[in-house]
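Continuing from yesterday's entry. The apo prediction looked reasonable, so today I'm repeating it with flavin mononucleotide included to see how the binding region is handled. Same sequence as before; SMILES copied from the compound registry.
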Amino acid sequence: MMDWTDRHCRYLHRLLSTHTRLYTEMVTTGALLHGDVPRHLDFNHEEHPLALQLGGSEPADLAACARLGEQWGYDEINLNCGCPSERVQRGSFGACLMAEPQLVADGVKAMCDVVSVPVTVKHRIGIDKVESYDFVRDFVGTVAMAGCSVFIVHARNAWLKGISPKENRELPPLRYDTVHRLKRDFPALTIVLNGGIKTAEQIDEQLTQVDGVMLGREPYHHPWPMADWDRRFFGDAASGIDRDGVEAAMVAYMERIAADGEPWSRASRHMMGLRDGQPGARRWRQVWSDHRLKSWPASAVSAEARRALASAAVSAGFDPGQVASTTPNSASANATA
Ligand SMILES: Cc1cc2nc3c(=O)[nH]c(=O)nc-3n(C[C@H](O)[C@H](O)[C@H](O)COP(=O)(O)O)c2cc1C
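Holo prediction written out below.
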């Protein structure tokens, strides 16, 4: 998610779930062809499996960037056909590409021709007021013929005029039935549903109709329930990591990036929701966000934040030992209750 997620955020999410596929924010072909490639493409090896999302429309540029992405080590190249922002429309890519399925197909084919990793597409169910199912069905059909077999479908139209990108994630109504219908009509394709999903129960429900579910905002704000996803959705053992373990691993990571000259707060900002639901979470967050402590080592800030957490828990009548040993499963149940 542009301006929100980055490799530090993905490092946190990967500590919580080994199997969940992670996606970069959209990186434009222009930024890769004319900008600072390492700045846009570098990632931590721990982030795999990881998809690079491209924004662009010119098949030759997409192919060059897909090749770069594969060389950099990405496991999937995803094309954005869902972003409604005016800046993106001026570049003739993002959601407005849904009006040009053949151009998307040409771009997908150009990418498939030069990489061996999967090329996938993320799109909306329609643009502006076009609500006919045929529109999205024909889009998927045309693009699938070019070699794409995975479609991530944000289950609402993109309104290209008059509302902001933020409103475009809330205002057009969600229509999950359209995504379910795509799966029924294209059973051989992998159809992943996106939009408005918050709980593990909602994911379970969608998985009876589609092949996968993508979540954006919810795990960004409330990451901890992800610690139960390997067990619940991927049939693996629970990670066994607790929130203290996640914080300790993030502190080690922050010290690593600080040693390379990057402020550790670029990583800590993504874990503000880690303690949600625990007594003292607000105090813990306040310590981590305190600007006066930014010159301290991350380990010292963590010690201070943990002290604040424990003392707030004691004042609220909780045993701090119990707070520290909360397991992912019970916490997930709390978070989704
Ligand atoms: C700040 C922000 C930035 C976003 N940037 C991207 C992006 O770069 N690429 C993309 O495909 N979707 C982007 N999205 C949309 C989300 O990926 C997702 O499709 C949308 O928020 C609906 O899913 P959700 O309800 O689970 O958040 C962004 C969303 C937000 C809130």
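Comparison notes:
- The first helix runs from residue 7 to 16.
- Residues 1-4, 25-26, 53, 80, 82-83, 122, 154, 169, 194-197, 215-218 surround flavin mononucleotide (CB under 6 Å).
Will overlay with the apo model tomorrow.
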